[in-house]
Design a protein that fits this description.
single chain; Nucleotidyltransferase, domain 5; Hypothetical protein af1432; 3 domains; alpha/beta
Length: 515
């Protein structure tokens, strides 16, 4: 029986306290099995002398004890709790941590601004296939800005302003007129000018962590009626954020709460948070915004899971293998055979299709994951496969690429492809339909070549000819099931490729299939 372990991560932030519980299987496959969030607003409770009242810490005690019981209910093996800006910057931080330990039994680690930035970077970089960029994490009491080049962290800085303490300092109930907005921008700019590296790499994307940019992304998605409800890796242009900021600035917090996508607990702090975000974007000369749904807590999890080797070398491959491992009923021998055959077909037919190497990655993903829908229900499992891929945070792909991979994996015919395209035409292009049809039918052929799931095809060579596509199969045993299955898909294959597959099997079989 496969053993599992569970890891709990508690993040005591300036705006909220959060718990995430991960389940890790014996094969290091992992998933989130529970989350909880409680509002804290600790940055609002810092007194004039910079201290936090012990009685305010007791509110955190109640939350931590609740989280501790949740961890016990889930039989959590490891618990790591950290505190960020509000407690870090409190003049009596040692006293607060001692109270939390005494009342809950939980050791709370105070993260420095540098370590907070580093863990945020780790969470992001392990969930995005991106080489260079600027990273911003707007918390309640601090803002971390980092520069990474070649997927390595180069610079980071923590500023002592965030959405909660900026709201408290400059506004009354989150209302910011033009004069107040100018003062907030001036404060942010004064901090940025001390770090010239922030504007030393113009044209990089600004990747955002935390509730401010996630909320902005959600608001934009709802306004656009965006067809894929994923926050992670959602992209926005400069003008989009400017328009949303103007819209929200003109509203009192009570009215903001009614905007589709806004959470009530963020309505009063969203505008100051967005002003910080916009100021960093403009100063840095960034190209566009990217929302990251992974950050500090994810980085802490990776550090607990693989201490010293937490950063992944191949985000997409790791993500695909993790998703596959979460569906253990899928035959690994079979899907890896399908994967090998599909990629060999792609490579051998390069002169025929002239598709990009990136397209090969979509086929790679789809061929490994095409069967995962069967864990929900065998009948119509391709539909379940599509849903699982499209909604499972498949890291290393853009939203468009996630949809393309899901459509290839669940490919049935041109009509089904067209239907999915119309459902997601705000993300996909017309040319994506042809791409899916070609790669989807290629995957169908690879699946047919291992229909028995016994791997009879030891070696495959595909040769494009005017009369058809010759498939030379070197087999270890009788491929009769496979040859019959190929006959069943030739009609659909010809629609996509204009050619029929011709099978030549050795040592015992040689046949040509006709429509």
């Amino acid at each position: 029986m496969e053993t599992t372990s569970r890891i709990g991560i508690i993040d005591i932030g300036s705006n909220s306290v959060r718990l995430v519980i991960y389940e890790v299987s014996g094969k290091d496959a992992y998933r989130v099995i529970d989350e909880s969030k409680e509002s804290a607003r600790l940055s609002e409770k810092i007194r004039q002398d910079g201290s936090l009242k012990p009685e305010d810490a007791m509110g955190i005690v109640q939350v931590l004890n609740h989280f501790k019981m949740l961890c016990q209910a889930h039989h959590t093996d490891t618990l790591r709790a950290v505190a960020t800006a509000a407690i870090r910057n409190a003049s009596n931080s040692g006293e607060i941590v001692a109270i939390l330990k005494r009342e809950t039994g939980i050791d709370v680690e105070i993260l420095s601004g540098e370590m907070e930035a580093r863990y945020g970077f780790l969470g992001m970089i392990n969930s995005m296939d991106i080489q260079d960029g600027l990273l911003i994490d707007i918390g309640g009491g601090s803002t971390e800005v980092s520069l990474f080049l070649g997927r390595s962290l180069v610079h980071s800085v923590s500023f002592p302003f965030g959405s909660v303490n900026t709201t408290k300092r400059f506004t009354k109930d989150g209302v910011a007129d033009a004069e107040t907005a100018a003062k907030i921008r001036q404060m942010v700019l004064a901090g940025l000018e001390k770090e010239p590296w922030i504007k030393g790499h113009q044209g990089l994307p600004l990747i955002g962590l935390g509730g401010t940019i996630r909320t902005v992304g959600k608001l934009d998605q709802r306004a656009r009626k965006y067809s894929l409800p994923l926050a992670h890796q959602y992209e926005m242009e400069k003008g989009t954020v400017e328009q949303l900021l103007a819209l929200l600035s003109a509203m009192p917090p009570e009215k903001r709460k009614k905007v589709d996508g806004m959470t009530g607990s963020r309505a009063d702090i969203i505008v100051p948070g967005m002003l910080i975000l916009q100021a960093v974007f403009d100063y840095s000369g960034a190209s566009h915004y990217i929302v990251s749904g992974s950050g500090l807590r994810d980085g802490l999890f990776y550090d607990v899971l693989n201490p010293g080797q937490a950063q992944l070398s191949n985000v997409l491959e790791h993500s695909v293998r993790n998703l596959l491992s979460l569906h253990p009923s899928v035959s690994l021998l079979h899907v890896e055979q399908v994967n090998r055959l599909a990629l060999k077909l792609f490579d051998d037919l390069q002169d025929l299709h002239h598709l990009s190497i990136r397209s090969r990655a979509y086929l790679h993903v789809a061929s490994l994951l095409y069967r995962i829908g069967i864990t929900i229900f065998y009948y119509d499992y391709p539909k379940h496969t599509f849903y699982l891929i499209a909604h499972s945070r498949l890291y290393g792909l853009s939203h468009r690429e996630v949809l393309i991979s899901a459509m290839i994996a669940s490919y049935k015919n041109k009509n089904r492809t067209r239907q999915l395209f119309l459902e997601h035409r705000d993300i996909l292009t017309e040319s994506d339909c042809l791409l899916v049809e070609r790669l989807g039918s290629l995957l169908q052929l690879a699946v047919a070549l291992d229909r028995s799931e016994t791997q009879p095809v030891r070696r495959l060579t595909a040769i494009a000819r005017t009369s058809g596509i010759r498939l030379q199969l070197e087999c270890s045993h009788n491929p009769g099931i496979e040859i019959r299955e190929i006959g069943a898909i030739t009609k659909e294959f010809k629609k996509a490729w204009g050619l029929l597959p011709e099978i030549q099997a050795t040592p015992d079989f040689s046949t040509t299939l006709h429509s």
